[in-house]
From TrEMBL:
PROSITE patterns the UniProt entry points to: ALDOKETO_REDUCTASE_1
Name of the encoding gene: LOC118431052
Keywords in alphabetical order: NADP, Oxidoreductase
Reactions accelerated catalytically: S-nitrosoglutathione + NADPH + H(+) = S-(hydroxysulfenamide)glutathione + NADP(+); a primary alcohol + NADP(+) = an aldehyde + NADPH + H(+); S-nitroso-CoA + NADPH + H(+) = sulfinamide-CoA + NADP(+)
Protein name, as recorded: alcohol dehydrogenase (NADP(+))
Organism of provenance: Branchiostoma floridae (Florida lancelet)
A GO cellular component entry from the record: cytosol
Site (Lowers pKa of active site Tyr): 102
Amino acid sequence: MFITRGTPKAPPTSERRRQSTTRMSAPTVELPSGQQMPVLGLGTSQAKPTQVTEAVKVAIDAGYRHIDCAMKYGNEAEIGAGLKAKFDEGVVKREDMFITSKLWNTFHHPDDVEEAVKMSLRSLGLDYLDLYLIHWPMAYRRGESLLPEDGEGRMMWDDIHFTDTWKALESCVESGLLRNIGLSNFNSKQIQAVIDVAKVKPAVLQVECHPYLNQKQLLQFAKQKGLVFTAFAPLGSPGRTSVKPGDPSVMEDPKLKPIAEKYGKSVAQVLLRWGVQRGTIVIPKSVTPARIQQNIRVFDFALTSEDMAMIDGFEIPHRFIHLDWVSHVPEWPFHESF
């Protein structure tokens, strides 16, 4: 369960409409380092560089203080431009923001880790990162290509274990480049392997999580191990490039609309509220100003226990982000049930 600060009580329905144009901030959870991490942030995966600067500016104006980034997204320089604009305007200071980035698979070699961190810092225009995650437990072949393939189109991998990568990240914490470090897309066995060797314990686990993949077992495991749990794709990743005919859509589940209507909220807001209320951090992505502003307005209402139980029961399960084309790579995480 989160230990949060600043969680508001839900106002009457009449006040919700009046608050619809005001700035709202997210409560926070305390990490083992003592740092506060907002429980809702702006996701930036798949955001085009031409759109993401404005999205970051809109988000900060709307009250977001948590931005989730990654080298692989190819837009960190543009995110940095959005941050700089708001720093220069005096809207926020650096210490007001919680910025996450991630180590890509081709930089797992311990000799490459610090430079990868510094590359993201240069792109973002920052001196340190609040959180840095190993993006995936899989190591791809070192080199200039972020997606190194052989002549048959198969991903080439390196025999580098993520526990060695972790030790290099710990050095970046010691040097002050990183405030917190964690894991993304790791299964329970891989998480335990890191914990077993860690001097700096992982603070956060980030994985795909929504009502069609509620990750109950992994969430419970993370809590037992003291990791804060972040849910990416909390809306079911409706904007992903890999949509296939017949894929289920969380946002279009007919059981959600009556719940949304009951609270005068959107289906997206109900999904985000479900995520926060069950003790996860959520990082919905959008570049549409109205949706960015709407997504943070989930702290002025609470779902009933009956609503929560109904949504908990949606489990199909269905994973939208599975990278099954690299299942031959050692440490592909989805061979395990959780």
